[in-house]
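note to self: dont lose this again. the chain is below, predicted strucutre after it. 341 aa total, dont forget to put it in the shared folder this time
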Amino acid sequence: MSSTLMKFAATALVSLGLATSALAQDYSLRFQSSDPAGNPNFLLKVEWAESVAELTGGRVAIEMLPVNSIVQHTESQDAVAAGIIDGHITDTSYFTGKDAAFGLIANPVGAWSSPYEMFAFLEYGGGNELMRELLEPYGLHFIGATTPGLEAFISKVPLNGVDDLAGLKMRAPEGLVQQVFAAAGAAPVNLPGSEVFTSLDKGVIDAADYTVFSTNHSQGMHDVARHPVYPGFHSMPLVEVSINKATWDGMPADIQAILEMSVRDFAHNMVGKLAANDTIAVAEANADPNITVHNWSAAERARFRTIAQGEWSKVASQSANAQRVYDVLTEYLVSQGMISE
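---
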């Protein structure tokens, strides 16, 4: 064998060895959810973790932890960056206190009429790039996003339009959602999702922006709040799937690609399953004489969205990142004919 061939063979063996080493590398990761154990959203996240193990042939094992298992729901971003947990699946608006941009991109109230509109913005309108730009300085890498879908609204009192929100004590997540409801006349407070039921039951709040109808129903929310609003008129959260950036950067390209693909599948799986569950749960609620499902008129929905969109520019003025989110978001919505210039 010539010296040239010997060098080529040696190089090939080294490359093969490195590739084999990378393929053999295992990852045992802990992700914390913003949902409690037993919640349908949490169970779907557990299914995602199991799918990752299957898709990677066991090379990546993810333990999915319920909300507040290791840290509080508002602290998971810091915990991921510090390596206390490896990743999280959570509503991005919980980190609005760090940058108003998180609240605006997480839930631009009034922007989306379906989950697929949000997915299109992320994939084709610059949303994924924005999320990575926002998170990477904090030591996180954004893999992708899901959403439970357009949220229903839980209420102990009848709500038929914007005027009924006046003075309403309600739970809403940090950031733009709270700001919009305040602008509409409500009195929003910050509570984790795990405290919504007890807070309604004890009269701490009279209503809540929480999650989709079927999840509310399965958790007994309509036993204590008998005036839900459906279909949702207000909110659809961006639920980020993010990982410690150093961990991500150290992963081989094929693992990264599998994780990205798995999150896209997870998002569509969550939206589809919860929508199907909603249809069944609404029928059950309508058949219960103790529950009254309120469906806002088109005029009242438009009225609320107008209030919401009026708050976007106020959020944009709070930070350079928020202004960037506002510019990219509104440019996309105008280009799609979803809002006027």
